[in-house]
């Protein structure tokens, strides 16, 4: 039995919650995964996993062994990187909002892959919350507050935001010149499909943030839908500048209240603590830090 390979398979089962998912992610036959775990449990003399028809989870011994495996595998990867060559290698799984991926990351990504040709990227584009450990994700990009203290948070940039609406909407309702003129206007409401939290409009007034909740006819739970609803004439929205820049240039949306901006929105890279020693994660996040502060990224006006 290859003990390091068995440990790698075991950690992936714990992270993904199943033998089949682990086998697929590692490109291994499912039967081989099952055999390896049986051999590993026999070698250690303990049961590592609870198996049911719906879920696989670690036993108490398995949870303790998982933590040791993660540490050992990280040390092994680091040691091999020193003696083999200077290039990090292997699979890197990343999740990010679709708009950031399409407008910022992918246009610059060839630069990263030329620099690190041995890293294989698997990139998910979505706005949904991600369980990094359970889903086997190495790194996730998220805007707004980070609420999970179990993850390492690396600040990337403060994104400028704008308030905007469609020209047709503003022609019908009027262009507000100050906050008090928002009476009689409506907004597109953004809500979280996970927490149910609903978001109004925010404006930075000195050191304070003023929240204004306008009537709404349409509510959405995705960033792309949020802008699309505003473009269709359903009201005011507030989005990071990069996300609306093309629509603003083309005249499909129009900025309002430019003298009273929304507070900037933090963009952060999050990754599990045990991933911070991974050279793949380190070089990717370092590259993102550099990318996000470039003028061409569009995050700042």
UniProtKB/TrEMBL annotation:
Molecular function, one GO term: sequence-specific DNA binding
SUPFAM superfamilies according to UniProt: Periplasmic binding protein-like II (SSF53850), Winged helix' DNA-binding domain (SSF46785)
InterPro entries: LysR-type_TF_proteobact-type, LysR_HTH_N, LysR_subst-bd, WH-like_DNA-bd_sf, WH_DNA-bd_sf
Domain of life, per lineage: Bacteria
Pfam families assigned: HTH_1, LysR_substrate
One example of a Gene Ontology biological process annotation: DNA-templated transcription
Domain annotation HTH lysR-type: ranges: 1-59
Key words of the record: DNA-binding, Transcription, Transcription regulation
Keyword Transcription: yes
Family statement: Belongs to the LysR transcriptional regulatory family.
Protein name per Swiss-Prot or TrEMBL: Transcriptional regulator
